[in-house]
Every structure is written in structure tokens, then in C-alpha cells.
């Protein structure tokens, strides 16, 4: 039994995504019709009132938990190839924007404590990097090499780095508790607040949520991309997958987590790549896979649930199978220790300008950011035609950690310590 | 006492790489196996949490050890002691586990713990060369093997699959007649481990210089990448997926993927996603923190657990021999309770076939203690090692050592040639860890500078300037078999629970001394031509200091303990046959480096593993007769 | 002597003797542990005089960098001065050892000598797959900085 954990390929990890045709549930159509007349989607109260008036829709008699874009809007969100490429660039930024907060959570755990939590967060970070690569593969697959200028990179490192606290890129607005400000991503030390934030980032769509004009989850955003890929590929003569296969990152370039790099040269492979991203992120509609057992120590599952495990200080077990949103089931597997105190007391959202009165500290922050920019440059070079650079380029991740710990060891004098700022600097 | 029912097909003594390979093949072929392991139970934990915790304990012990020698992370148990290089003293010496009678000290160690010495091996996996198997007929030195290189090829492929070797077959140019020693189109499971920055700088320099004159003959030094058992990028042209017993043909089959899927790197024992690539910890010896480096527990894990029982803290003490049939009747073993007290219980393990996999020295010691397998009087004799002469100096430019695996490039020039008639062959690895081995750098550089009164920025600059230029290489000289280099036992010397301690007699023959002299001639020219300022110093106080023609040399052990129960052509000249079955006892097999008649210039683990596949094949065949 | 001022002076002295900046030393996270180590292992009188004399020297307006260096070399560095405190302190920071003893896992890992030689302590702070095949990152980045072609 115990050997199961060590099996190399887990068949249950496949098929992380539902086929597109499954997505038109009658209930969603009903929701969509009910809200079609609404034009201003930014006023949740108004929506709530309108739902309350529509008392004849049985699924909505409870207070709404989430608001999301209608299925119809999701389907038609992507306008054309250019828009699709722009959305994929946004997806890149989206994946990147989640890495610094997770890394802050990870780095602020003091060595030797919170072993399980650190391992879970670490695996998420490695997979977010994988997602960046997968998105790059899709983008490269639908980018005609003739349209690429010599020396042009897939993205612009300076522009892609978010300024924390930041909204999630891509017009994604996860639901927040009543009265709370709109959701923004902060750089926080390992804490309950941070875990709450991580879960919010990765939280799956609620199929029963009422409709707005924005995405309520990363999953919904990728759904729009899937529809866009399918539709635009179909209606473009010769298809849109005209990318140079030599720009694809292939499986041997990636390691360290349960994910798999998919080379993308056609629609089916693009679909598979998105399956990997969304499946790992949140599961689809709050499930991990469509049918059978979802959890247990030998199964790789979605980030949202990994964060739930940390929040509860318990692994999921093979008996935990109820994952329709909103997730009510509490993990019931092996308990583990979570210590909120064995943590570096990092100042929230640190910035280089906070250190301007301490030139030596500022220098340390700059050094960290140089490594961060080097890492992004390396990834950018790898996805811009030099795939072999990826494995060594990503090795810079190690140095990033050591530089971050140096900052965390430096007290600021008010009980807090310095921290990594994840800002752009010139090399 | 144990029940005496013969429930097991095979008893294996030792969970190192040899024992684990046999256990894996046998259990997966449906045979019931009992494994006895002298080390602590914690080391064999199979569940994730306990396994991780135990390994973190090793790591933390290593961090806190003042001398970070190969055995420093692992518990040295009083009731089952390990040989430790810290105990090597001028002979005679009874310090430590070995009793060293001399005239010089045997200089290598090994580990008694679950997983054996693969816990701290470097991981170099070069094959032996064709002439290494026929030293007597080719060069008139030592003995021939009863097996040819050509017979070994398929077993080498099995071993390279099991260990997971990273390397570039095309790089492997040796100083031999054959164009290649590999099967056509063969590739290693994983791509070459990147060679170090130091290797690149030095290869450039060596390629332009290094024409060496030795005994009036000219040689050209050249560099090749070193194959090694640590994880790298999978090679998609590699199609072997394993080894399986074929009951029809009574042979082991190499099984292949139908489609080229490449090799799947085996991660750590606690998490399959840790250690999928070497992360450059630069501590392969004594411990790879992420287990990107192969260890035998990775093989043990692949056993069919339903067919495997493991008893830990179980120290084999004697083989029981049936006096009429001369078959082995059982293994007597002592189970210690704490590891530090003299309390133990005695048990007997019984099976159809017995396999000794307890290391060359332990195997020999146990056979001697049991009066077993020794009609040839060869048990314990021909103890060998790579007698290793260290050379170090400062390069003109920084080489940035102390990074990456211990060695990623070697100079194979003197691995084979006519000179072997006169003196030993050697391999010359370029080392990535500066002067750590010979001088305990960089710590010693700091204490020296500080004792000279240097401090502050000046100290920082001096350490940077000097240590980054440290170049180190070592001549691993092939020791030839000598019957007087041997393991014996003596009732005067027993350990905490009454088992014999190995008593060692050891010396360097003139064949070796000549090689030390030649290493001096070569390194002088090599360093001079490559602009390396020589800092080598051999101290007459070193435990293994020898002189030849007025010059002194210190040698070290390479951790390659070989040759104590060699295989041969008949029951007069050897302990085992070419299937590694003892000539004297039909149901007793010996596995491990003790079987090797000669050593060659490659680190022995790969060859020993290949031989173990051959032995397992013979065992399975015998069981199914 | 006030404990807080000793701790401040310890940082000051460590920076002077190791050649690392105070922030670099703080960034190791070892300050407190090392301060305790010297307090525990050095004669109190030696410690007191060491810090009093050092403080006096460093705050003396008549001294310049050259004369300070001379006095440190002749009055503080000798093995006979203050129970070898200066030498021991440097070795502690550089290697993580007090004499032959490793203070802790962290002290081994934080030894300054590894940074100094652009490497890392064996078995810790690993730099990742293939890193050893290139110049160390710290060397590369300082070259980028000084290169006129760098952005």
C-alpha cells in the first residue's frame, strides 16, 4: 500500500478538464437569461435585488455566493486572433502575478517548520511556472513565425511584472465577503490571511453563481480562451496553429512537480495544455476529475485544495469526495502541524522605496530583484526560441530564495522584517 | 527464536545495491525473500513521513559534523560498526572497527546502514574496459576474469538502467583498440550531466597543451565527460524500461518501450518529484540532500513488497553448513536491541538459497567466521582499492570550484596501454571541489589567513582570490590482486556483540609504487604546461605515506573495497564461479565487489551491479530447476 | 556593560574584522547566535576589554583608516590579544565553527566563506540544475554591472 505513493505515473492525473460541450447546463442558461437585461454588472447589490425579484428560479433562492460572467458571454468573449493572442499574454501575466505572493508565503516559513505546508506551496509554485510555459506554448503555437520580428521576445519583462497589491489581470474578480473591498493580491507572510488570499485566487467557479460581466475565476477566463481557440481556429482557413514547433518547450525541460508540459501544435494539444493549467489550478467546477476517487496521498490535485489542506492542517483522504462548489467538505486525512508563529514577520507588500533610508538594505533588495528579473528574462528567452535555456534558467529560482531569506533576516526596527519586493530593476 | 520453517526461497544478507538488486529481481519473479540488514530500522522506512524524517536526520548530522567525511551523516552503531576513514592511523592500529596490522593502513570506508555505501557513493558509473578482463593474457599481470567484456555488455545495460545513468555515449573515447565499447545506437538513460565551468576552462587548456613524456613514450592528455548515476534530462532515444525474468528461456530479459518515451528519472524516496534532476548540492559524498543521486533504497522500493520481508538491526554472524551435503543450512544472526549495548538475541534464518551481499570485507569475514567457501584458501585475500595519489595546485585564473557534482570530467589517457606490464593504470578525474579533500579547504584557508593576522576586506579578497583558483585532481591507481593483502579474523578482536572485527594486512607492491612515481612524472608536466602552480605536499606523518626511489608519496583510499572472494576458472584458484556461486556450497551465492578478480580503472559499483544481475539470473535459474 | 550596546558593538566589530557590511551580516540571521557563542566561550574580562578598547579606537577622532588598521593588526589580531577573540570571531563568521565545533546547522549553512568564493555550503543552498556549468551568478552579475554594454 505504502508503495503507491511512489508510483511514477498516476493514471488519475489525466483528463483534468471537461469537454466543452458539457458546459451548457440548463440552469446556467436560465441564469444567463435572467440576467441578460442587466447592463451594469459592477453593482452586485443590484444583481442580488434582481435575483430576489426573480423568485421563480429555484436555484437562486439562496443568497448568491459568487457572480460570474454568463456562459454566452464567455463563449463569445474572444473577438479575433489578435484578441486571442492578447488574452494569452494576459494569461501569462496572470500566472506570473500569482507567483510572488506564493513565494512570499513559502519564503517566510522558517526553516524546519511547517514542512507539509512548505512542500504544498512549493509544488504550487513549480506548477505556476509550468503554467507560464504552457501558456507560452499555446501562444507560440498560434503565432505565425513570419509575424515575429528578429530578436523580439514573447513578452516584455518590465511590463509583465505587477505592482502589488494588484487586481488579478484579465478582468478576473473573485467574490469577496459583503462589504469588503474588491479583491487584490497582496504580498503577505505565511498567515491565515495569506492562505485566504491563495484560496481566493485559485477558487473554482460556482456553477450556481449569478451573472456579471466579469470573470469570477481564473478557470472561467481560461474557458473563454478555450472557446476562442476552438471558434477562431474553425473559422480561419487553414487554422490558426501556424507556429514554429521549434519554439515549443517539451516535457524534458520541466521537472519537480506533478505537471506535464504539453507541446502544442494543434487545437487538441492546446486543449490538453489548458486542461493541465486549469485542472491544477482549481479543478473544473470544483471537482478534480470527473468521475471517481479524487484524493489521497498518491494523487496530484488542484491548488485550491492544497491550500484548503494547509488552512485545515489536514491532508485530504481518499474518502473526501464532495467537491461541488461551494466546497463544504473538510479534509479528513492525516493531520499535520501548521505553525503561524514560526514565520518571518515580513512587512506586507514591501517596496524598494521603503528601504531608501538604508542604502545597504536597498542594495540587498536590488540584488534580489536582479535575480528576479534574470529569472523572467531566462524564461522569456526560453519561450522565445531557445527552449534548452529553460532548465538552467529556472535554476535561478534557487538563488531567488536565498536572496529573499537574506532580506527576511533583516529587522526593520518596528518588529517587522524586510522582504523581497518583486519589482523591476535594470540589470 | 525464529520458527525454523523454510518459508523463504532466498535469504539475502545486506540491503546495499547488490542485495537490493537481487531482492528486486527475485521478488518480482515471485520468489519469497528475507533480507537481513545490520543497520537501524529507521533507515529503511518506506512511508513518506518516516522516510523523510530519517533522511533529514542524516542531513542535520552531516551539517553538524566537524569532519564531513563520507560516513559523517550516518549512525555508527556500536553493535554493527562501520569502517570510518577518521580511524585510519599509522599501523599497527586497533582504532575503530578495523584492526590494521599493516605494514600500511587500508584507507577506505563503507557504510553499514540500509542502502549501504550507495548512501555516500560519488556516483561515477564508468564501465570497465575490455582489456581489464584479461590482464594476465594481455599484460602478464594479475589474473584474467572467467568472463569477457562482451559477456558483460548486456548486464552493463541492465545496471545502467537500474542506477539511471546520465552520460554521453559519443563522448566515451578510451585509449583502446575498439572504436566503442557500447552496442550500436546505445544511449544512456539520461543526457550527460553538464560538465563544470572548471572542466570547460581546463579542457581548453589541456587540449592545447599536455603532451606528456613517460618512460620515453609520448602520451596526449585529453578530457571526456564522466557518466554518473544521478538524474539529468531524460534521453528520448533511450527505450529500455526494465529487466524481467523470463521463465521460458530461464534468462533475464531487457524489456523495451514500444514507443520512445524516454527514461523516467526516479526521484527521492520520500517524494517522487524531489530529486528529478541533480540540483548541484556539491555534496554527493557524503549525502545528496534531494536524492537526485541513485541510492540502493530506490531499487529496494521497487521490490514486490508482498514477497519481501526485511529484518533490520539483524547482524549476520555465521553460516550454518550441513556437514554431509556441504549445503548451507541457515544464517545465524544477532538482533541487537539498542545498538549501543551488548544485548542481543540470536536467530536463524533459513531458505533454499543464501546470498551474501554484506560488502567485500564483511562477506569475507563472515565466510572465515563460518569456515565456509574457503577450500581455495582465497577467502579474504586479494583485497584491493584504487590507491589514490592526490595532486593539487593553483590555476592562473579563477575556476570557481566547490560547485556541482564531485567530478564531471576525466582524463582517460592512462586507463589502458602497454605500460600496464610495468605499473598500474589509473584514471585521472578533474575534481570540482577544490582542495576540500587534501587540505580541508576552504575552512583551512580561512584559519591560515587569520593566523597570519589578516582580517577585514583583505581577508575576504585573499580567500576569494586563492580559493576560486584551486585545482585538484587525483590519480586513482588500479591495485592488482596480492594474496597477502587480506582480511583475516582473530578471536582476540571482536565487536560489542561478539562478532569478529576484520583484521587487515595491507601493503603497496612495487607495481603500485611505480605507478605513484609515474603519477608524479605526469602531474609535474601536466601542471607545468597548464600553468598550475603545484602545492602538493606529502607528509611523512600521513598514515599512508610510502617512499620509492627516494621520493615520498601519500595515497588515500577511493572507497572501492574489492576482491576478497574473487571469481575464477576453477575451485582451486577462486571462491566463486562466473555465476557467483561458491564452488564449495551449491546454494550459497556471493554478490558485491568481493567477486571482482581485478579492479580496472573504473569505480567498481557499476561493474559490480552488472555482475549482480548475472548472479540473480543464475539464482532464479537454480530456483526453477 | 549594557547587553544591548554589547550586541551593537558585536555587530560593529564583526563588520570590521570580517570585511562584510553590517547588513550582509544581519542577512545571515546568525547575529544573535554568534553573539551568544562568544559570550559563552570567552572569558568575561577579555570580552569587556575587547569591546571597550575597540569602541574607543573606532570613536577616536584622531584616528584615520590607516592608523586604525595598524592598531587592529597589532593590538587585536594577535593570538595573545583578548583570548584570541578577534581570530575566533572571524573564524566563527567565515566557517560557522567555534574551534572544531559546528555551532548549528544554520551556522554551517551561513558560513561567509562560501559566499566569498562564489560557491555555497556543500549540501545546502544548492544552486540548481546545471548552474555549475556556468560562471557563478554572483560573478556574472558583477560583470554585468561593470560591463559598459550592460543596460
TrEMBL record, chain A:
<feature type="domain" description="Iminophenyl-pyruvate dimer synthase">
    <location>
        <begin position="88"/>
        <end position="311"/>
    </location>
</feature>
<dbReference type="Pfam" id="PF12902">
    <property type="entry name" value="Ferritin-like"/>
</dbReference>
<dbReference type="InterPro" id="IPR026820">
    <property type="entry name" value="VioB/RebD_dom"/>
</dbReference>
<dbReference type="InterPro" id="IPR012347">
    <property type="entry name" value="Ferritin-like"/>
</dbReference>
<protein>
    <submittedName>
        <fullName>Ferritin-like protein</fullName>
    </submittedName>
</protein>
UniProtKB/TrEMBL annotation, chain B:
<dbReference type="Pfam" id="PF00732">
    <property type="entry name" value="GMC_oxred_N"/>
</dbReference>
<dbReference type="GO" id="GO:0050660">
    <property type="term" value="F:flavin adenine dinucleotide binding"/>
</dbReference>
<feature type="domain" description="Glucose-methanol-choline oxidoreductase N-terminal">
    <location>
        <begin position="277"/>
        <end position="387"/>
    </location>
</feature>
<dbReference type="InterPro" id="IPR051473">
    <property type="entry name" value="P2Ox-like"/>
</dbReference>
<keyword id="KW-0560">Oxidoreductase</keyword>
<dbReference type="InterPro" id="IPR007867">
    <property type="entry name" value="GMC_OxRtase_C"/>
</dbReference>
<keyword id="KW-0285">Flavoprotein</keyword>
<feature type="domain" description="Glucose-methanol-choline oxidoreductase C-terminal">
    <location>
        <begin position="481"/>
        <end position="611"/>
    </location>
</feature>
<dbReference type="Pfam" id="PF13450">
    <property type="entry name" value="NAD_binding_8"/>
</dbReference>
<dbReference type="GO" id="GO:0016614">
    <property type="term" value="F:oxidoreductase activity, acting on CH-OH group of donors"/>
</dbReference>
<dbReference type="Pfam" id="PF05199">
    <property type="entry name" value="GMC_oxred_C"/>
</dbReference>
<comment type="similarity">
    <text>Belongs to the GMC oxidoreductase family.</text>
</comment>
<dbReference type="InterPro" id="IPR000172">
    <property type="entry name" value="GMC_OxRdtase_N"/>
</dbReference>
<protein>
    <submittedName>
        <fullName>GMC family oxidoreductase</fullName>
    </submittedName>
</protein>
<dbReference type="InterPro" id="IPR036188">
    <property type="entry name" value="FAD/NAD-bd_sf"/>
</dbReference>
UniProtKB/TrEMBL annotation, chain C:
<protein>
    <recommendedName>
        <fullName>Membrane bound FAD containing D-sorbitol dehydrogenase</fullName>
    </recommendedName>
</protein>
Amino acid at each position: 500500500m505504502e508503495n503507491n505513493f511512489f508510483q511514477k505515473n498516476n493514471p488519475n492525473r489525466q483528463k483534468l478538464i471537461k469537454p466543452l460541450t458539457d458546459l451548457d447546463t440548463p440552469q446556467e442558461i436560465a441564469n444567463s437569461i435572467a440576467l441578460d437585461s442587466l447592463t451594469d454588472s459592477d453593482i452586485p447589490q443590484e444583481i442580488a435585488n434582481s435575483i430576489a425579484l426573480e423568485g421563480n428560479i429555484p436555484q437562486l433562492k439562496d443568497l448568491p455566493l459568487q457572480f460570474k460572467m454568463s456562459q454566452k458571454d464567455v463563449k463569445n468573449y474572444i473577438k479575433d486572433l489578435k484578441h486571442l493572442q492578447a488574452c494569452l499574454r494576459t494569461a501569462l501575466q496572470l500566472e506570473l502575478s500569482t507567483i510572488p505572493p506564493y513565494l512570499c508565503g513559502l519564503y517566510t516559513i522558517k526553516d524546519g517548520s511547517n514542512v507539509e505546508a512548505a512542500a504544498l506551496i512549493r509544488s504550487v509554485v513549480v506548477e505556476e511556472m509550468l503554467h507560464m510555459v504552457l501558456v507560452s506554448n499555446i501562444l507560440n503555437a498560434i503565432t505565425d513565425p513570419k509575424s515575429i520580428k528578429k530578436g523580439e521576445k514573447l513578452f516584455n519583462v518590465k511590463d509583465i511584472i505587477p505592482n502589488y497589491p494588484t487586481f488579478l489581470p484579465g478582468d478576473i474578480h473573485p467574490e469577496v465577503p459583503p462589504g469588503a473591498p474588491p479583491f487584490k493580491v497582496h504580498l503577505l507572510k505565511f498567515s491565515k490571511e495569506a492562505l485566504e488570499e491563495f484560496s481566493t485566487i485559485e477558487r473554482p467557479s460556482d456553477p450556481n453563481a449569478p451573472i456579471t460581466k466579469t470573470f469570477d475565476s481564473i478557470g472561467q477566463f481560461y474557458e473563454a480562451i478555450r472557446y476562442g481557440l476552438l471558434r477562431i481556429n474553425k473559422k480561419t482557413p487553414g487554422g490558426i496553429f501556424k507556429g514554429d514547433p521549434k519554439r515549443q518547450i517539451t516535457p524534458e525541460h520541466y521537472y519537480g512537480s506533478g505537471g506535464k508540459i504539453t507541446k502544442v501544435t494543434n487545437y487538441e494539444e492546446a486543449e490538453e495544455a489548458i486542461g493541465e493549467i486549469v485542472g491544477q489550478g482549481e479543478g473544473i467546477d470544483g471537482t478534480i476529475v470527473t468521475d471517481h476517487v479524487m484524493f489521497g496521498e498518491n494523487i496530484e490535485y488542484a491548488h485550491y485544495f492544497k491550500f484548503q489542506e494547509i488552512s485545515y492542517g489536514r491532508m485530504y483522504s481518499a474518502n473526501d469526495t464532495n467537491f461541488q462548489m461551494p466546497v463544504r467538505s473538510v479534509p479528513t486525512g492525516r493531520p499535520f502541524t501548521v505553525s503561524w508563529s514560526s514565520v518571518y514577520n515580513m512587512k506586507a507588500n514591501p517596496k524598494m522605496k521603503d528601504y531608501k533610508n538604508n542604502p545597504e538594505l536597498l542594495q540587498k533588495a536590488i540584488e534580489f530583484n536582479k535575480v528576479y528579473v534574470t529569472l523572467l528574462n531566462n524564461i522569456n528567452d526560453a519561450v522565445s526560441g531557445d527552449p534548452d535555456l529553460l532548465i538552467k534558467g529556472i535554476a535561478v529560482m534557487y538563488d531567488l530564495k536565498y536572496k529573499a531569506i537574506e532580506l527576511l533576516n533583516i529587522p526593520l526596527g518596528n518588529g517587522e522584517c524586510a522582504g523581497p519586493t518583486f519589482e523591476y530593476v535594470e540589470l | 527464536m525464529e520458527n525454523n520453517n523454510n518459508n523463504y526461497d532466498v535469504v539475502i544478507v545486506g540491503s546495499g545495491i547488490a542485495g537490493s538488486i537481487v531482492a528486486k529481481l527475485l521478488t518480482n519473479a515471485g520468489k519469497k525473500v528475507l533480507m537481513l540488514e545490520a543497520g537501524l530500522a529507521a533507515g529503511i522506512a518506506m512511508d513518506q513521513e518516516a522516510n523523510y524524517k530519517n533522511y533529514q536526520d542524516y542531513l542535520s548530522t552531516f551539517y553538524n559534523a566537524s569532519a564531513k567525511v563520507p560516513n559523517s551523516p550516518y549512525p555508527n552503531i556500536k553493535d554493527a560498526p562501520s569502517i570510518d576513514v577518521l580511524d585510519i592511523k599509522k599501523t599497527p592500529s586497533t582504532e575503530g572497527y578495523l584492526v590494521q596490522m599493516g605494514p600500511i593502513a587500508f584507507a577506505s570506508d563503507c557504510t553499514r546502514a540500509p542502502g549501504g555505501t550507495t548512501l555516500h557513493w560519488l556516483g561515477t558509473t564508468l564501465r570497465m574496459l575490455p582489456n581489464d578482463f584479461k590482464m594476465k593474457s594481455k599484460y602478464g599481470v594479475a589474473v584474467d576474469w572467467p568472463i569477457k567484456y562482451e559477456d558483460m555488455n548486456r548486464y552493463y545495460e541492465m545496471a545502467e538502467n537500474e542506477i539511471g545513468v546520465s552520460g554521453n555515449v559519443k563522448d566515451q573515447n578510451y585509449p583502446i583498440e575498439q572504436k566503442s565499447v557500447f552496442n550500436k545506437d546505445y544511449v544512456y538513460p539520461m543526457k550527460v550531466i553538464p560538465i563544470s565551468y572548471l572542466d570547460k576552462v581546463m579542457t581548453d587548456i589541456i587540449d592545447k597543451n599536455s603532451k606528456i613524456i613517460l618512460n620515453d613514450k609520448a602520451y596526449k592528455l585529453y578530457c571526456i565527460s564522466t557518466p554518473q548515476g544521478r538524474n539529468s534530462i531524460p534521453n528520448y532515444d533511450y527505450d529500455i524500461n526494465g529487466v524481467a525474468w523470463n521463465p521460458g528461456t530461464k534468462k533475464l530479459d531487457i524489456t523495451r518501450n514500444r514507443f520512445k518515451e524516454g527514461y523516467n528519472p526516479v526521484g527521492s524516496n520520500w517524494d517522487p518529484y524531489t530529486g528529478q534532476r541533480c540540483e548541484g548540492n556539491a555534496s554527493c559524498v557524503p549525502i545528496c540532500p534531494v536524492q537526485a543521486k541513485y541510492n540502493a533504497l530506490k531499487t529496494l522500493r521497487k521490490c514486490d513488497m508482498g514477497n519481501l520481508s526485511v529484518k533490520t538491526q539483524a547482524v549476520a554472524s555465521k553460516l550454518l553448513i550441513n556437514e554431509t551435503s556441504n549445503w548451507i543450512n541457515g544464517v545465524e544472526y544477532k538482533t541487537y536491541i539498542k545498538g549501543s549495548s551488548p544485548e542481543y538475541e540470536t536467530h536463524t534464518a533459513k531458505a533454499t538459497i543464501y546470498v551474501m551481499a554484506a560488502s567485500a570485507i564483511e562477506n569475507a569475514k563472515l565466510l572465515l567466521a563460518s569456515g565456509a567457501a574457503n577450500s581455495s584458501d582465497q577467502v579474504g585475500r586479494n583485497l584491493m582499492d584504487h590507491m589514490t595519489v592526490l595532486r593539487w595546485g593553483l590555476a592562473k585564473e579563477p575556476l570557481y570550484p566547490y560547485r556541482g557534482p564531485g567530478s564531471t570530467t576525466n582524463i582517460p589517457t592512462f586507463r589502458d596501454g602497454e605500460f600496464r606490464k610495468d605499473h598500474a593504470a589509473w584514471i585521472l578525474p578533474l575534481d570540482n571541489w577544490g582542495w576540500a579533500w587534501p587540505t580541508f579547504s576552504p575552512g583551512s584557508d580561512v584559519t591560515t589567513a587569520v593566523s597570519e593576522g589578516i582580517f577585514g576586506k583583505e581577508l575576504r579578497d585573499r580567500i576569494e582570490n586563492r580559493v576560486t583558483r584551486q585545482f585538484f585532481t587525483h590519480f586513482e591507481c588500479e591495485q592488482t590482486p596480492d594474496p597477502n593483502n587480506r582480511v583475516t579474523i582473530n578471536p582476540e578482536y571482536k565487536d560489542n556483540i561478539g562478532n569478529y572485527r576484520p583484521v587487515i594486512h595491507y601493503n603497496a607492491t612495487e607495481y603500485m609504487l611505480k605507478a605513484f612515481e609515474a603519477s608524479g612524472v605526469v602531474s609535474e608536466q601536466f601542471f607545468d604546461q597548464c600553468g598550475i602552480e603545484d602545492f602538493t605536499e606529502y607528509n611523512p606523518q600521513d598514515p599512508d605515506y610510502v617512499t620509492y626511489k627516494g621520493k615520498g608519496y601519500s595515497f588515500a583510499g577511493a572507497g572501492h573495497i574489492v576482491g576478497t572472494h574473487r571469481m575464477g576458472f576453477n575451485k582451486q584458484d577462486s571462491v566463486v564461479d562466473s555465476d557467483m556461486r561458491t564452488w564449495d556450497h551449491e546454494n550459497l551465492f556471493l554478490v558485491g565487489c568481493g567477486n571482482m578478480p581485478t579492479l580496472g580503472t573504473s569505480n567498481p559499483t557499476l561493474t559490480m551491479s552488472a555482475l549482480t544481475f548475472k548472479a540473480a539470473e543464475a539464482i532464479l535459474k537454480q530456483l526453477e530447476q | 556593560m549594557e547587553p544591548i550596546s554589547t550586541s551593537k558593538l558585536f555587530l560593529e566589530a564583526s563588520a570590521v574584522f570580517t570585511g562584510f557590511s553590517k547588513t550582509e551580516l544581519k542577512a545571515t540571521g546568525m547575529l544573535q547566535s554568534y553573539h551568544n557563542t562568544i559570550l559563552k566561550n570567552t572569558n568575561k574580562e577579555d570580552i569587556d576589554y575587547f569591546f571597550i578598547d575597540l569602541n574607543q579606537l573606532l570613536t577616536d577622532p584622531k584616528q584615520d583608516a590607516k592608523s586604525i588598521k595598524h592598531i587592529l593588526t597589532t593590538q587585536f589580531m594577535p593570538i595573545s590579544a583578548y583570548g584570541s577573540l578577534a581570530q575566533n570571531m572571524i573564524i566563527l563568521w567565515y566557517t560557522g565553527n567555534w574551534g572544531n565545533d559546528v555551532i548549528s546547522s544554520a551556522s554551517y549553512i551561513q558560513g561567509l566563506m562560501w559566499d566569498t568564493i562564489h560557491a555555497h555550503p556543500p549540501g545546502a543552498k544548492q544552486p540548481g540544475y546545471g548552474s555549475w556549468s556556468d560562471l557563478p551568478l554572483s560573478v556574472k552579475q558583477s560583470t554585468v554591472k561593470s560591463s559598459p554594454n550592460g543596460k
